[in-house]
Amino acid sequence: MTSPHLRSAHLYAAARTPFGRFNGALAGVRPDDLAATALTGALAQVPGLDPERIADVIWGNANGAGEENRNVGRMAVLLAGLPVSVPGTTINRLCGSSLDAAMMASRSIECGDADVVVAGGTESMTRAPWVMPKPDRAFPAGGVEAVSTTLGWRLVNQAMPAEWTASLGECNEQLATEFGITRERQDAFAARSHALAAAAWDDGFYDDLVVPVPGVELARDESIRDGTTADKLAGLKPAFRPDGSITPGNASPLNDGAAALVLGSELADLGDPLARIAGRGVAALEPQRFGFAPVEAAEQALRRAGIGWSDVGAVELNEAFAVQSIACVDAWGIDPEIVNTRGGAISIGHPLGASGARILATLAHVLRERGQRWGVAAICIGVGQGLAVVLENPHADGADR
Predict the structure, then answer these.
(1) Is 380 annotated in the active site?
(2) In which domain, by residue range, is 19 found?
(3) Is residue 294 part of a domain?
């Protein structure tokens, strides 16, 4: 139950672009333009909202080194044609950036600082630039190596212990060893993701959630491989260890895309809310074990919502890697069949800054579709962090309206 001294924060609308694969259909679209498209799409779902009422736009982005560098949240506001009086900020919690944005927005609403806030995130992993450090002194004689900012560590501080700065794939190979998660389980999990995502598109589930990108012919998420099976995935070679279990088939791909959410109080007069933000959690552990961080984050969010796993009817867990997703589901002790019922990041894609908003929006729609009251959205984050949000479906029996 919410405190009588706090307002409730609700999710009223959500929209995202299709997620394009690396160097795919969205490769020619700037991340700030992707952000503006998602923002415009979400606001179109609340036509009665005067844009002047938007107290803030909180936008997630994990890179910040390229075309999104100049506060992409504010740029999205301007490119979307909103009044110049609408402010915007950009935050970076790597893969969890846009879920963090939604959490910040909900806190602002609950404490009364705002009545309507837009949250979201954007990422073009294709267009992420190469960077190089400035030299320690002028006119060095030697060459300088450019470093890709697409994914993972770059320009590492040498004071960091080596085990903390291992590659994301190596870190998850360590999880596979720690929890005894086999290649077969990972491939089966990945094949299920593709099958469910393809079925969701065929069923029209994403029709109201995804908006087209102007000038691009991309009607659905580009990384989905309909017909993928565990047997087919078993033929792929390990990507990080010669004898490892992680392959390009059971890990999320590199992607481009954006997602946006409209949040407001119960007094915002924005129509019928999709869901109520009922609990939030943030956790951290050893950087190399980042894939397991959603476990404690979700436990926190559930405690703050005043419920337990037995009450939860749907879970959206970002599938950075199949192995870390399996480890989290096993730790929670929940039925795997309630997890990512409309596909996950292995198939849909994982444009880092946009993924948190995607899973939160998907969860709200899954709860409505399944008639379930409670759901959990959770995401792992590089450098050893995790976030989670509990949503309540206001239309379910017993809901706190």
Answers:
(1) yes
(2) 9-127+251-392
(3) yes
For residue 211, give both structure tokens.
């908006």
CB-based contacts of 265, cutoff 8 Å, min separation 6: 7, 8, 9, 10, 109, 110, 115, 116
Active site residue 350: yes
Give SS3 for 117: strand
- Catalytic residue selected from 95, 171, 194, 328: 95
> What is the total count of domains within the chain?
1
Instruction: Say if 337 falls within a structural domain.
Output: yes
* CA atoms of 295 and 297, how far apart (whole Å): 6
Using CA atoms, how far residue 132 sits from 62, 145, 150, 154, in Å, is 18, 7, 14, 10
pTM of this structure? 0.96
Alpha-carbon span 385 to 112, nearest angstrom: 28
Q: Which of 171, 194, 328, 350 is catalytic?
A: 350
Which mean pLDDT values do the consecutive 10-residue runs of the chain (401 residues) have? 71 98 98 98 97 98 95 98 98 98 98 97 97 89 90 93 95 97 98 98 97 97 96 96 96 98 96 97 98 98 98 98 98 98 98 98 97 98 98 88 56
pLDDT of residue 6: 77
